[in-house]
Structure formats: structure tokens, C-alpha cells
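Example for tutorial group B:
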């Protein structure tokens, strides 16, 4: 991801505790291809991660706030991401559908959220959101990559995985 041309190094933000990296947020440049024919450069936020033992302590929220502040100062108009509304709505994001923003394949997705970095930043940007292809998962390549590490038992059916599956199904045609 850090070798990707759309990677924004200034928005590769870490959280540290006692000299240990406990969290990270990364942004890539993305675009909204508006229905009016204009293209708007925006950011994709993700991944954002916090070590399990440091979760629920506000670290993720602080990473998001720092990302928003830095992106705003850099002149970006908005940040988009896919995630759980139960969390991201509390972090200042709104459903992308509110602004008429759809996925690249012209769908409204419950998990797609946007945070405008200044008032009316996306006032004329109703359209389709295109994130970098680096976010596309090649399952074969991922499985091959995982073989480079010690074996870990595959755990399925966790509450988070079930929530992800639930949100992934909440999609409809525009």
C-alpha cells in the first residue's frame, strides 16, 4: 500500500503508547466522478487499526481526528470510508447516500460514509466513488502471502465478522 502511487505519506498516522506503536491510519487518494461530469479528488481512509488491548480507549477516534485535521490543512475536500455506522457516525461521518454518493458500480451501500472537511465541500459531487484498486482483494495472492507466516488457527463467526457480513449485504441499486 505504501508503494501505491495514490498513497499519501503525510496521512500515514500512527498512535504510540510508551514507545510502542498501538494504532495506525492510512489514506489513499480517490475520486468521485460526479454526475455533472466533474471529477473530485477525495481521500479513502483505511485501513485504520488499533491493537486489541488498546481498543475502546479513544485511540481510533484520535487517529481519525488527526487524519481529518491534516487532510483539511493539505486542502483535501473530503474523506470516504467503508465501515460500521455505529462507530463512524460518532466520528463525524455521514452516510454517503445523504450526498448522493454511490459505489463505483453505482450502488448505495450502508457502510459507505463521508466526512466533508469544510462546509459544502461536496455540494456538487453527487456521483460514483472510485477508490484505488489496491483495495481489491486477490484471495489467491492473500493465501500465498499468508503462507510466509507461522500457522494460525482460522477463526470464523466472530461478532465482528457477522457484523461485516450484515453490513456487506446492505447494498442497493441507485
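The residue assignment follows.
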Amino acid at each position: 500500500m505504501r508503494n501505491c502511487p495514490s498513497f499519501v505519506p503525510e496521512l500515514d498516522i500512527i498512535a504510540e503508547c510508551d514507545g510502542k506503536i498501538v494504532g495506525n491510519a492510512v489514506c489513499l487518494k480517490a475520486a468521485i466522478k460526479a454526475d455533472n461530469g466533474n471529477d473530485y479528488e477525495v481521500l479513502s481512509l483505511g485501513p485504520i487499526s488499533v491493537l486489541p488491548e488498546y481498543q475502546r480507549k479513544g485511540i481510533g477516534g484520535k487517529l481519525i481526528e488527526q487524519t481529518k485535521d491534516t487532510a483539511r490543512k493539505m486542502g483535501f475536500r473530503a474523506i470516504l470510508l467503508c465501515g460500521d455506522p455505529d462507530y463512524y457516525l460518532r466520528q463525524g461521518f455521514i452516510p454517503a447516500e445523504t450526498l448522493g454518493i454511490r459505489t463505483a458500480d453505482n450502488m448505495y451501500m450502508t457502510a459507505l460514509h463521508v466526512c466533508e472537511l469544510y462546509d459544502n465541500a461536496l455540494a456538487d459531487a453527487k456521483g460514483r466513488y472510485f477508490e484505488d484498486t489496491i483495495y481489491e482483494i486477490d484471495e489467491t495472492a492473500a493465501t500465498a502471502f499468508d503462507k510466509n507466516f507461522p500457522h494460525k488457527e482460522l477463526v470464523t463467526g466472530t461478532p465482528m465478522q457477522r457484523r461485516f457480513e450484515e453490513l456487506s449485504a446492505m447494498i442497493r441499486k441507485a
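Residues 7-173 form a domain with the Aminopeptidase fold (CATH 3.40.630.30). Compare this with the pattern of hydrophobic and polar residues in the output above.
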